[in-house]
Amino acid sequence: MEKEKIDDIIKMLNSKFSVHFQESVDNKNVKHLEYRGIVLINDNDNIPLTISFGEHFPLALPEFVVENKEKFRAHVGSDGKICLLDTSSILIDQDMPEQIVFDCYQQAIKILNIAQGSKEYNNEVIREFESYWTSVVNKKAYSSVDIETVSYREYPMVCMNGISMISETSDDAKAILINTFGLKQDEDGFEKKCIFIRIRDESPIIPLSKQFKWNTVRKYIMNNTSASVKRKFQSFLDLKVKNAVRFVLLIYPTPQGQILFGFRLQFSSQRYCKIENLSNCKVENLLIKRIDYQYLLMRGGGSNTLKEKNVLLLGGGSVGGYIASNLCQSGVTNIDILDNDIFMPDNMHRHILGFDAMKYSNSQYKSDLLKNMLESQYPYADIDSLGFEDRSVENFIRRHDRFKKYDIIVSALGEPTINLEINRLLIENKIQIPFVCCFNEPYGIGGHIIVTNLEQTSCLRCLYTDIISGDLVPFRGSFVMPEQNFKKNISGCRSAFVPYSCLDSQQTAIYATRKIVEILAMKLSKNGVYSWLGDCASLQANSFQASQRYIRNREYAYIQEEAFANKNCKVCKVREKECI
């Protein structure tokens, strides 16, 4: 916008709000126009304020900057810039530039009027605490400690190659630094002690400062902790030290979760004195980057109820690989993956594993490569690639008692014969473990998730049994007509594959993961068939036919059926006889 128009807007602002902003005479930035003025805050505090217009105004909002940066204020950065609005959630009317400036000015004054120490101030600081604290920190450390139930406890901090890690034990800290951060064992590494202290609910947040005094930190802790925590902290204060470094971390509870921040304390004295009485103490603000399971899961929208669940995943192919990753992201940590297939370069465009997966492993089995990938991406994942015998499902299911250690069995094999055998074994041996089968249909026409063994009214075999003759037939819910051969090959039978894309596999995996999570969280208690529908154009262009089920439902994106019991199902008949 032209300078003359912005000058006019500033004149209107001065008139409307009885202020006096004028162009900054020392502005050397040709891409910005700056106007300075004095505003009255809380009826007694005159604050210098600068309004800056960038070259993209009014497409971009003007910036308001407080020149007095020493005093900490809510929603004001260390550079003095006021955080006015979340621009990602508002629409800017470019046709009313003067109203944009008026609204921003009023919002800036509203923010500056938030009194330090008030309830509003406390709430606003808590909401944006991490960004504020980041601007005043001197040091950084990582923490894998689950702080949900900690009131007062000491943990070790291990420092290696410039990175500090706090964990339950020093061995845990070293393992994370080596295995997750990829550090090498550091002979010059060292260990320090960290004290975690929980602040009492509804206490005020400590007034933020770039440079704290030990006396300020000590008094804040004593005034805002429970009686039992005070006693333990007093024992720490009574320790006699001469020259020592200690770390104190504060757990501040909020309705949105736990805030964790801390201080590095360096005590110096000519003789041994109680920590409480030491006046020569250098305090450095410490930024804590939480990597504990609870925090990472909360930030990712997962569920901590899934941490102890055990999942058996049969098949680590294009669908199974995405399911495994989705489950880890959802909060599942214990997954056993059984697959005897080798990962080949021609798999990569529809598999979650990339071409470089084989660089970092001596094995080329998909299950081993998935284990390496998932455990490196999710530090709390515990993946077993079941690398015994010949890794075949056929051998594994010979001992059906193996199923009993799992909370759910998921098959992404795409092999109905094996799935039906597992179904039979579960029912005939009265193993009440949910069984989920999922697979794609060719050419992107759709995919299916079949949930069974949640109730005894139906089973997987019901969907593969003719409703009149009782004979074994192809999946009755298929979106393609039976007796069509969809397999293609480029260089012989060994490279044969069913044509579908990575997007189809991801779609099926997403729907499957949702059902798996619902089952593990005990939110789903009925058997069901859940199917997503894609476009049939590619199928028909290759001279194949869609089924009547697809044609009847083609206007829907997703369909589900929970009543699929079949009175001619042989497996269900055996179960009925046993119940009589």
Rg, Cα atoms, Å: 32 Å
- Looking at the overall shape, the CATH architecture of the largest domain is 3-Layer(aba) Sandwich
> How many structural units, i.e. domains?
3
The strand line-up of the biggest sheet is 16-15-14-17-18-19-20-21
**Beta-strand content:** 15-25%
Overall geometry:
globular
- Indicate the CATH topology of the largest domain: Rossmann fold
Intertermini distance: 85 Å
Overall residue-averaged pLDDT value: 89
| Number of DSSP-assigned strands | 21
CATH superfamily of the largest domain: NAD(P)-binding Rossmann-like Domain
Structural class: alpha/beta
Question: Helicity range of the residues?
Answer: 25-40%
Label this structure with key terms.
7-stranded mixed beta barrel, 580 residues, single chain, Rossmann fold, Ubiquitin Conjugating Enzyme, alpha/beta, 3 domains, 8-stranded mixed sheet
Explain the layout of strands and helices.
Elements: H1 3-17, E1 22-23, E2 33-41, E3 45-53, E4 63-66, H2 97-112, H3 119-127, H4 129-134, E5 139-143, E6 152-160, E7 163-166, H5 170-180, E8 190-198, H6 214-223, H7 227-237, E9 240-241, E10 244-254, E11 257-267, E12 273-274, E13 281-290, H8 293-300, E14 310-314, H9 318-330, E15 334-338, H10 366-377, E16 382-384, H11 393-396, E17 408-411, H12 416-428, E18 435-440, E19 446-452, H13 502-520, E20 528-533, H14 537-541, H15 548-553, E21 558-561, H16 570-579
Parallel strand pairs: 5-7, 5-13, 8-10, 14-15, 14-17, 15-16, 17-18
Antiparallel strand pairs: 1-2, 2-3, 3-4, 6-7, 6-8, 9-12, 10-11, 11-13, 18-19, 19-20, 20-21
